[in-house]
Write a structure and sequence with these properties.
Blueprint lengths: L2 H17 L2 E5 L5 H11 L2 E3 L7 H7 L2 E5 L5 H17 L3 E4 L7 H14 L3 E5 H7 L22 H15 L2 E5 L3 E4 L5 E4 L12 H13 L4 H25 L4 H14 L2 H7 L2 E3 L1
Parallel strand pairs: 1-2, 1-3, 3-4, 4-5, 5-6
Antiparallel strand pairs: 6-7, 7-8, 8-9
Helix pairs in contact: 1-9, 2-8, 2-10, 3-4, 8-9, 9-10
Length: 280
């Protein structure tokens, strides 16, 4: 890890906390409350508006737009199209979370439509979703990543090339999250983040929360650093929450509560001591 990218992440996080950006989240209703509380815990401010006719006004007061494809009814899609148009016109960063890409033809069609319409600054999904967007076939597990798409130290270069190819194709920063997170920029930069713990997979919506966090970061800095900052922050908090849970012989409910606590309490020193970032 270079000191330069770590310093950029810390500077961005502190800038975000100072700006306290409002983040408009069109997110699925399974995780809407958790996404809102995660934004508050990290120092941002959530708004979860879903009505098409108010999207231009909502985006005027928002610092970023997060579009989560977990819910695909027509009123929601209409609001998403309107919000994307307003965000582009107003120069606000857009984060697309392609939830369940590869699980159905409808989801694949909507993902393609939203990438074309919104030209997102950041696409954040699990590796199976990202591989689907690259045109690969997967054995779908709904909204969860396939075990075939687990990134390891041995295969991370291969997956890095895959993620980079989608970044170059779309012009978006692409962030594929998993045991090792892969972030690629259209200009060819790639980095890997090794923070986190498998208990994060035991809490519904940590991917959705990560996308919401990415929106807050993008409202305060460049897309590549924003994507890296979000996954590092969530990963470190996951490690700390696991350590607390293990020491106190507690379970997943305690882990979830402590995850929010450690996001809220995270300091520059936590990033300096714990961040595990590899650059190629």
């Amino acid at each position: 890890m270079t000191n330069e990218i770590l310093k950029s992440i810390i500077d961005l996080v502190n800038n975000m906390k100072q700006k306290k950006p409002i983040v408009e989240c069109l997110t699925n209703r399974v995780t809407i409350n958790d996404c809102a509380n995660m934004l508050l815990a990290m120092g941002a401010s959530p708004i979860m508006a879903e009505i098409e006719c108010e999207m231009a006004e909502i985006m005027a007061v928002s610092g970023a737009l997060v579009m989560n494809l977990g819910l695909l009814d027509e009123p929601y899609l209409a609001a998403m199209r309107s919000a994307a148009k307003a965000a582009k016109e107003q120069g606000k960063p857009i984060i697309l979370d392609p939830v369940g890409a590869g699980a159905s033809k409808l989801r694949d069609r909507v993902c393609a439509e939203m990438i074309e319409l919104a030209r997102p600054d950041i696409i954040r999904g699990n590796m199976s979703e990202i591989r689907t967007l690259c045109g690969g076939s997967i054995e779908s597990r709904g909204v969860d990543a396939s075990s075939d798409d687990e990134v390891t130290d041995e295969n991370r270069g291969e997956f890095g090339e895959l993620v980079k190819s989608l970044a170059e194709k779309t012009g978006s920063v692409v962030c594929a999250t998993g045991a090792i997170d892969v972030i690629a920029a259209p200009d060819g930069r790639v980095c890997y983040v090794k923070n986190g713990h498998e208990m994060l997979c035991g809490v519904t919506g940590t991917g959705c929360m990560c996308s919401a966090m990415t929106g807050a970061m993008a409202a305060a800095g460049d897309p590549f650093t924003a994507a890296a900052a979000a996954v590092v922050m969530l990963g470190i908090a996951g490690e700390q929450a696991h350590e607390y849970t293990a020491e106190n012989e507690a379970g997943i409910g305690t882990f979830k509560v402590k995850l929010f606590d450690y996001i809220y309490l995270m300091s520059d020193e936590d990033f300096i001591k714990r961040a595990k970032i590899i650059e190629d």
